[in-house]
């Protein structure tokens, strides 16, 4: 089956949290329209960029793009940007059932509201290994009032101007900023108004006794979240498109770029409604109000507020329950894809914050990532060897001498657009190693997202990864496969994947500002097997004139 979409991307004024702001919409909506398909369907999306002055690229997050690496939608890696006033057509197959996302992948454009869900159902006649009465979908987000240009300029300036914590949290595109907390009373009465319909809370209406499959995704630009439905258990059954051995949580920790399905039964007192909440964890954000929605028991009035105060969130700096949830996520019995027992190559990626020429950056093995002008996929396929640094970045760091628990004494890093070339069909282990930032006693959570592949999550740990002790404890029995995974503060995360998808693939921190500041790498494999590139991805850097009609 072919599913066709025509999307008009526009800049518009909206007030998702009651504060009026320029946002980017698809066909007038943010979050954008949900793509619903069945496994093996072909999706065709004709995107018209109606932004007056901004380029565009849309990434299909969690879709591996097997055979279509040029439609991954990653500006600078797999395509040139879509220019204002032009139309670009993406075409790809959704080859796995599950919950996925799409979002802008050009600069920090995603956080202006250009995101949405992709829900892929099983083929006719097949069913999930769990039952539910209804299927619902929500995307969680954080929200800033300034523009991405403002943020980017601050991040790239000397002195460094950090973006700070978000002004609000959105539940399916709706949040609530307290207009009376604006620092300067505005002479513009339309700037912030609690009665705007854009910011009426998200309400999920449930029938008492019924069970809901709730698909929950995070598209935050910065925040790690704790999600809960007051008084209700959540049974986790899916993560990033893979079935999970079910486990029950009261609150679900979710990091930017992750998707989960939970089962929730409306089994509480049906005479009242309940809070749905999202709260920031892992960062101290006392001024960001929680995201609030309402879990409405039919036939109670949808506008009836729960009689309680919203439930409290776990302490922001308590890493332990987050580590425990990560470790609890295992592949479901009967759906286990066993990883290869050994790997051909191990790449250790140390994440640090540092400086280049006085500018604050994030680096991997002391190299801060920059994009080349010619997208990698085009440069590699067309053998344009001066398009980017041909020296690969380091395979690891000085493990014996680097102390991950202190502010590093030598803060200087280098920048490069070099990439890791992986031998086709080999098994690659990646160890994400976290460390102290440039502030004493501070280490952050980073959700890393891999394009073009799912990986097995072999283990998480605290402190410095020990290749003898820790690698011996890998879970090779029932590891979950994911496309996005956190590395916890001062911790490590071990992944394994097979480099079997010809193309050039970004692997990066899903925090917008961190990737912007250099926290990412690119893997390339099987370039000789990549088919003829479509001319629509060309036009920038040294690809000008290539295949042009
Ligand atoms: O990249 C970042 O910069 C700030 C802070 O470290 C600046 O001092 C912060 O919290 C980040 O995540």
Looking at this protein, list some descriptive labels.
549 residues, mainly beta, six-stranded mixed beta sheet, 32 strands, binds ascorbic acid
Can you characterise this structure?
It holds the Pfam family Cu-oxidase_2. InterPro entries: Cu-oxidase-like_N, Cu-oxidase_2nd, Cu-oxidase_C, Cu-oxidase_fam, Cu_oxidase_CS, Cu_oxidase_Cu_BS, Cupredoxin, CuRO_3_AAO. This protein has four helices and 32 strands. It is globular and about 65 Å long. A hairpin with a 6-residue loop joins strand 1 and strand 2. A six-stranded mixed beta sheet has the order 10-9-12-17-14-15, with no helix packed on it. The protein has a six-stranded mixed beta sheet with strand order 21-20-25-30-27-28. Strands 11-19-18-13-16 form a five-stranded mixed beta sheet, with no helix packed on it. The model has no long low-confidence stretch (mean pLDDT 97). It is 5% helix and 37% strand. It has 549 residues and is mainly beta. The structure holds ascorbic acid (ASC). The site of ascorbic acid has 7 residues, from helix 4.
Bound ligands, each once: ascorbic acid
Q: Profile the largest sheet.
A: 6 strands, mixed
What average pLDDT do the residues reach?
A: 97
Total helical segments: 4
Structural class: mainly beta
Question: What is the overall silhouette?
Answer: globular
List the helices and strands and how they pair.
Elements: E1 2-14, E2 21-26, E3 35-38, E4 41-49, E5 58-61, E6 87-94, E7 98-104, E8 115-121, E9 134-143, H1 148-155, E10 168-171, E11 203-206, E12 211-218, E13 224-229, E14 234-239, E15 242-249, E16 251-254, E17 259-265, E18 274-281, E19 291-297, H2 320-328, E20 345-356, E21 359-364, E22 367-369, H3 376-381, E23 414-416, E24 420-422, E25 427-433, E26 446-450, E27 455-462, E28 481-482, E29 484-487, E30 491-498, E31 503-509, H4 512-516, E32 520-525
Parallel strand pairs: 1-4, 3-8, 9-12, 11-19, 20-25, 22-23, 24-32
Antiparallel strand pairs: 1-2, 4-6, 5-7, 7-8, 9-10, 12-17, 13-16, 13-18, 14-15, 14-17, 18-19, 20-21, 25-30, 26-29, 26-31, 27-28, 27-30, 31-32
The structure holds ascorbic acid.
């Amino acid at each position: 089956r072919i599913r066709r979409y025509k999307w008009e991307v526009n800049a518009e004024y909206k007030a998702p949290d009651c504060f009026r702001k320029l946002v980017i919409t698809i066909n007038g909506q943010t979050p954008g329209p949900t793509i619903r398909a069945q496994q093996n369907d072909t999706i065709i999306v004709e995107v018209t960029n109606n932004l007056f002055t901004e380029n565009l690229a849309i990434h299909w997050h969690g879709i591996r793009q097997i055979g279509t690496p040029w439609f991954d939608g990653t500006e600078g890696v797999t395509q040139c940007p879509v220019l204002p006033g032009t139309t670009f057509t993406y075409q790809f197959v959704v080859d796995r059932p599950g919950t996925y996302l799409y979002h802008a992948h050009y600069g920090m454009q995603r956080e202006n509201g250009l995101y949405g869900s992709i829900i892929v159902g099983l083929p006719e006649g097949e069913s999930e290994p769990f039952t539910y009465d209804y299927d619902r979908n929500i995307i969680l987000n954080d929200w800033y009032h300034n523009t991405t240009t403002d943020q980017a300029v601050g991040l790239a300036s000397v002195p460094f101007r950090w973006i700070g914590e978000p002004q609000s949290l959105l539940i399916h595109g709706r949040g609530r900023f307290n207009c009376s907390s604006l620092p300067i009373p505005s002479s513009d009465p339309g700037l912030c108004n609690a009665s705007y319909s854009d910011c009426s809370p998200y309400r999920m209406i449930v029938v008492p006794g019924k069970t809901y499959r709730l698909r929950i995704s995070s598209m935050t630009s910065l925040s790690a979240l704790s999600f809960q439905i007051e008084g209700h258990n959540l049974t986790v059954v899916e993560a990033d498109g893979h079935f999970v051995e079910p486990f029950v949580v009261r609150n679900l920790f979710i990091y930017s770029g992750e998707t989960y399905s939970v089962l929730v039964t409306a089994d509480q007192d049906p005479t009242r409604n309940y809070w749905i909440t999202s709260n920031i964890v892992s960062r101290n954000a006392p001024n960001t109000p929680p995201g609030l929605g309402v879990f409405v028991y039919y036939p109670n009035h949808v506008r009836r507020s729960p009689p309680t105060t919203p439930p409290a969130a776990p302490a922001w700096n308590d890493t332990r329950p987050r580590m425990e949830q990560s470790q609890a996520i295992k592949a479901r019995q009967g759906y286990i894809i066993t990883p290869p027992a050994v790997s051909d190559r191990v790449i250790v990626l140390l994440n640090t914050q540092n400086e280049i020429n006085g500018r604050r950056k994030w680096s991997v093995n002391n190299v801060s990532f920059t994009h080349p002008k010619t997208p990698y996929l085009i440069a590699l396929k067309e053998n344009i060897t001066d398009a980017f640094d041909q020296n690969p970045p380091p395979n690891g760091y000085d493990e014996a001498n680097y102390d991950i628990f202190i502010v590093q004494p030598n803060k200087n890093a280098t920048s490069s657009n070099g990439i890791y070339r992986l031998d086709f069909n080999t098994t690659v282990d990646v160890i994400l190693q976290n460390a102290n930032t440039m502030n004493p006693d501070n280490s952050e959570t980073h959700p890393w997202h891999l394009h073009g592949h799912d990986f097995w999550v072999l283990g998480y740990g605290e402190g410095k990864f020990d290749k003898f002790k820790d690698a011996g404890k890998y879970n090779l029995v029932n590891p979950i496969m994911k496309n996005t995974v956190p590395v916890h503060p001062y911790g490590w995360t071990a992944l394994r994947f097979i480099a079997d998808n010809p193309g050039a693939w970004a692997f990066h921190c899903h925090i917008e500002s961190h990737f912007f500041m250099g926290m990412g790498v690119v893997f390339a494999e099987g370039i000789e097997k990549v088919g003829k590139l479509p001319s629509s991805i060309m036009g920038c850097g040294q690809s000008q004139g290539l295949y042009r009609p």
